[in-house]
Structures are given as structure tokens and as C-alpha cells.
UniProtKB/TrEMBL annotation:
Protein name: S8 family serine peptidase
Domain annotation Peptidase S8/S53: ranges: 216-601
Keyword terms, alphabetized: Hydrolase, Protease, Serine protease, Signal
Species for this entry: Rudanella paleaurantiibacter
Keyword ATP-binding part of the UniProt annotation: no
Record carries keyword Zinc: no
Organism lineage: Bacteria, Pseudomonadati, Bacteroidota, Cytophagia, Cytophagales
GO MF annotation terms: serine-type endopeptidase activity
Signal sequence, start to end: 1-19
GO BP: proteolysis
Family as reported in the entry's similarity comment: Belongs to the peptidase S8 family.
Database matches in InterPro entries: Glr3161-like_dom, Peptidase_S8/S53_dom, Peptidase_S8/S53_dom_sf, Peptidase_S8_subtilisin-like
Amino acid sequence: MKYFLYLLTWLTTILAASAQTPLPSKTDNRLSGHLRSLSDAYNQNKRLDSSIVNSRLINFDKNSGRVLVNAIAEGNTEALSAELRQAGIDIVSSRAQIVTGWVPVAKLSTLESLTSCRSVRPAYRPRLRTGPVNSQGDSAQRSGVARRQFGVIGQGVKVGVLSDSYAALPQSNTGVTTGELPGIGNPNGYTTAVTNVLDYTVSGASDEGRAMLEIIHDVAPGAQLFFRTAFISNTDFAAGIQQLANLGCKVIIDDIGYFEEPFFQDGVIAQAVDNVKNNNGVTYFSAAGNSGNASYEANYQPSTYRPFSGTTNPEVAHNFGTAAAPVYFLPIRLPALGEAVISFQWDDPFFSVTGNRQADAQTDLDIYLLNAIPSSTTATVALNSIVARGYDDNLASGDPVEILSYANPSNTPRTFYIMIVKYAGPNPTRIKYVENYDSTFPAAASAIVGINASTCYGHPNAAGAIATGAAFFLETPAYGINPPLVEDFSSKGGTPIYFTPNGTRLASPVTRQKPEITAPDGANTSFFFRDSPSDTDTSPNFFGTSAAAPHAGAVAALMLQANPTLTPAAVLTALTASCLDMDDPTTPSFDTGFDFMTGHGLVRADVAVQNAIPASLPCVSLTSGNWNTAATWSCGFIPQLTNPVSIGNGHIVTISGQTARAQKVTFSGTGKLNFLSNGKLGY
């Protein structure tokens, strides 16, 4: 049985409610629920809440006692930045209405008094979509064939990667001398080192970005490589995208997803992707995600059920079922020691994106995770059954998002229950949550309309991004499986866009074709992540759409060497036209053409490069040399059947042991062809 290696970032529980803890009242606080809990615990006993500061969901610096936050400006970010600096806050970056900075826990409560600040929430850590060692994905997507047939290696193309880190681990320099990466000492002559623009070297960094660069170097060894961390905050990620574009990167690849990225609107990262595509000519690849179809999306259905006792509790539950058969608790299954990190949103625009109080969250919804449910649809929920909750004041913050995190402490699988309630405001039209880690829907949830929905959201869903799904390299035609099979964790597309970036509701929602393509994963790197028993070697295997995206992005580098005039739109057209059709296994019959699990299918690099070459582009010899060497030709690639060829005066071009192809061949002066070892010329 195939072994799947999931790239998980283990989280601890952020908030747990006890039987003695009453439901929190919502006042006009600027601090989000998570930050209020952290601040209150510190102010009460001058101690830090260990369940929060030890969480990998929260960016906390234990040495300085600071937490990384996103402060949302009421007006312009310049005024808020000035107030934050005056309060001793170390600002990292800003974008749209968001200012990211490091705040001492002891000073969190002072943020409540900032007049230019509307709200503050944690700058949540994102999720990774996660030489002598060569990626088997190179053969699975036929990029080796492309290099041999067209003589392309990505020469002259700058490729940037955005991930967690590049050189945080102690063995980071060994990849150059063993040929895994370019730099001084590379045994294959690729001596231009990776440009490390900004790294992330805190505890827990995995150097996944370096693993991505190893894949790119396998596929396009002549490309010039750049790395920039995207792991600090969503605003810094957006700044990093533009920074790589300004450095001349024409291909940019990322494998990062932020939990609070908007579902139904293009947020700051998505807008940065669109900007570099439209204004810098960048072809942008993003890992589609590793959440499969672990999502719920449906129209909001109001009810009269009030789950909490007492006249002061205004919450009314969403009905997952029907009016005739209401369901207020959606079952989910967590494996032993498994984790759920759920992003929950609804169809209101984000104030942090629009900066407009007329285009922000009008409704306040909350999400709860329960370990037990009432015995009837009229009984109330016991407070000691609440194990986690997302309960920010969305009317105060203006952003329609809640983040819920919980780790199953049991050594056995357990069933938990999602409850969604409206706290205040009008009924929304559409609600959606995406589970980013381990939970699944049990058989008991199979009748619920809306489960198994799309999980590709945020910037991979941007119009300017090429979202990339994953297929295990051993389940592709190069390894005997045709048609290839998509990984079951590869994120499903189809998340609708309801709003423009400025918060205007569209006349009808736009559903983009995502993912566009699928590329190989599960192949070898020199160090990341661990060996899989599925292949016969002992090298570590890199699974996830995090591994697929660099495979596809490196193909774009080959294409751009073959034809440097290609626009991002032309690269996408050539890539999708190259794809081998695949099936969405969640539908009853074979999906011919595009589908929301595999896009247009598995990328074939040789076909993509061929598609990139302009028909009838002349190839003129620049020097005497081998026909099968790209440097021989003015066109920069090995001539094909559609290319007219001209042999220059005094040049001798040798065709040895192969059949060369050309539309026609003409000669200038004493130029000639030299045939060796049964070499031939075909038209």
C-alpha cells in the first residue's frame, strides 16, 4: 500500500473552555480573543499562557516575550505605524490596512487605547503545503526529455522561491558541493550561488525552501535561483513577492498558506500575485494546498435553536440540515493525536483589505468544537463540552474570519462536533470552513449538503497564480500508471469570489478554474523530509503540493529559455495544452478535460517547451558545432520540424548518431553539414 507522507506543522490547543469558564461577553475590544486571553493571563499573574506561547500557530519570541500581531488601521497605515512606534512596537511590514509588528505581551493591553487602530489579531504562522540525489519527478513530467530534445536548462531565467527557510539547518551548505544546488564548488559547473534575500532561522524552521530549490535545480539546472522567506506574516509575504519581482525573477514559486487569507475576496497576498503577473511579467506558481476536500460550504440556514442557556446569550445556531430535519452539530473525525486547524468565513468583505467601513463584516459569527452534544435538538450545550472556539468580535474588527485550533489528546480516534452560531448582525448568504490538517467527515456526516467542498483558497485562487496540484511520481505514465492519479490530499478548487478587492459585491460570483495543472510529488531530495518505503532507495521523499509547485515552475524556466518573449498568459496556455488528462476520483465517472481536483492534468515538459517555441522561428548557426547543442543556434534551442535552419558561412554543423529535424535547411558560402555515426536529417 502506498505510503503518504503528510507535511504537518504540529499545533497545540490555543483556547480550551472549561465547565467553570462562562462564555465570554463581546465588548468593543480591539484585541482578538486569542490576544485577550494572552494579555489577561499575563495581567492577572504576570505569567505567560503556556498553551498559547508554545503553540506553533502563534508567532511568539520567548527570548524577548513578544508576540507578532497584525494591527488593522482605522484610517491610513502611516498614522497607525506612528502610534505603534511611539508605543515601542517593532514594525515588520505593512500592506493595505494591515501593520505587522512585534508587541511585548506586557504591552498588549495598551493597544486597546490606540485611536488609529480598529483591531489587532495574531499574525498567525502559515501552513507549508508540505546532485547525486535526483528528483524522480523530473522523469515523471518528462523534463529530462525536454532538456535533451531542445537543449534547454533554464539558462538566463531567474527563479524565486518563497517558503519557510533556506539555511536554518546546520547542513545547509553541503548541497552545493554534492551538486544538489548551484554555487562555488558545484561539481557540474553551475557556480552562481542561490541568492538568499531574507531567511527565517527561528526554531522549527525546516528549510523546505531549500528542498524546493533542489527540485528546481534538478529540472532547470541553468536557472539563477533566489530565496525569500514568506513565513513572517501575510503582509511581509506580499512584500516578498514584489521584492523577488524587482530582482528580476520571471518565475516565482511558493508553498505557503495563511489561515486568515480571504476565501471570497482577493486579499493582500493574492493582490500582490496579480500585481507582479500584470506589471512585472512574472509567471507565478503556488501550491494548491494539501487539504483535499476537507471543507464545508453552504448557504447559511438560520434556526430558532439557542444552544446556550440564559437570557443574555444571543447566539442562534446554523442549521446544517433541513427545516424538517434540523442538524445543529456537524460531526468530524480526528485521528489519534490528530489536529484540526479550521478557518471559518462568510460572505462579507474584509475591512483589512478594503479599509472602508461601508465594505466590511456586517455579521458576527462564531464557531465551536464540542466533544459531546445535547441529547435532543432542544437541549442546551454543556459548557464543559466545548474544547475549542473561534469567537472574535467581527463587528469590531470588520473581518469575517474565525480561526479554531484543537489537538486530540487521545491515543485513539475520536468524533467531535462543529457548531456554528450567529452572535449579531443580519444573516449571511454563504458560509464556509476549511480544515487545514487532520480531520475528516465520518459516515454520519455523509447526508449533510455542503461537505467535501473546495479547499484551494487565498492567493493560489488568485487570477494571476497557477495553482498546482500533486500526483505521486510512481503513479504517472513514466512509472507505469496511465492515466496518472492525483494525490488524495491535493486541494480541490472551485472556491467562489464574491467581492472585488475594494469590497463591491459582484453581480454573480466568479469561480476560477483551479488548480490549473498537476505536477509530480513524492520524489527524492538530499535531506527533506524522510524516506518513503514506496520507492527502492533510502533518500528522503518530499510529498505535498509544496513539491509539485517547484516541479512545474522549473518547467516554466525551460520554456522561457526556449522563448524569452513568452508572457505569463502564454506560459499558462502552453502548459495547460501540454497536460495529460487526469480524473477527479471524487466524481462518479472520468472527467474529460478540466476538473477541480487535477486541473487540466499532468504537465509534460517536453510538450510544453515545444508549445512555447514559435512556429517557423528561424535558427541560424552562430558557430561550428553539434546540431544537438542549443549554443550552436541563434534561436537558443535545438531546431525542430517547424524551424527553418540556416548554416552560416564557414560553419560546419555535425549531426552524429541521430535524426535531426528542420522545416528546411539553407547554406551560406562554405557552410555545410557533417554527418557522423549514421546521423540523418529529416524534414
